[in-house]
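Hi Y.,

Following your request, here is the sequence exactly as I used it, all 267 residues.
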Amino acid sequence: LFCCIFALFAKQWYQRRVRGDQIRPPISINPREPQKFVLRCIIYNTVDVILEDTNIMGEQMSDIYVKTFLEGRKKESQETDVHFRSLTGEGNFNWRMCFDMELIVQENKMIQKKKGKFWHVEKTTKKVDPILYVEVYDKDILSRDDLLGSCELDLTRLPAPSKSSQECSLDVYERDNFFSLFERKKISGFWPVYSDVLGTRELTGKVEMELEILTEEEAVGRPAGTARNEPNTNPTLAPPERPDTSFNWFTNPWKVFKVLIWRRYKW
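Below is the corresponding structure, written out as tokens. Let me know if you'd prefer a different format.
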């Protein structure tokens, strides 16, 4: 009796899955293949960055530069040149950074490849959120650079930037106005950076930048070099216009006298 019942169920199971003489095509259970993208980040300016140092004339100042990197890839970070002696918290850069990345679109996860132990032949892979870290520093010659402020931007849930520096505040991270850069493709504006050393976020500056995501094919068709290197296209970046007071005092002692002392005290 048991054998008869089993045979009946087996026959019904087989008939449900067979149409005519054809068996349904097998379902692929292979891992999802990541898609290759290029993230282009252009740092235009900083505004209202806090001033950490004091110059020889007693004025507050900061030597500002910006560093960015993707989640799990801090060793591959890129940074702008230095806007020396900013007296207002403004920094001018016009500096492009480019990052290759692989994303599993269905999962909104970025593939991070990392070399394991020295005896491992292949790199290990890990799925992480596609987060862009933006950090603003004060350059120091004789000591470690000071981190003035930072922010973390999830490229699949990106907070909409402010259109002007006056409107830019920490509220952009609290509003319900997020979008995916992989769908929007390109966005520019001001994002606030902050310090949370004391446990609460404190606004420490604003960064004007442009973020653009391209497929590997689009990046080849619209080439662009890092910084302002060739090919300096899409878009073309001009050297920043910085005030005369922006220079490296350590390598220009005569200019220190000319700009800071002579102009102030000449008669």
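The radius of gyration is 27 Å.

Thanks again,
Q.
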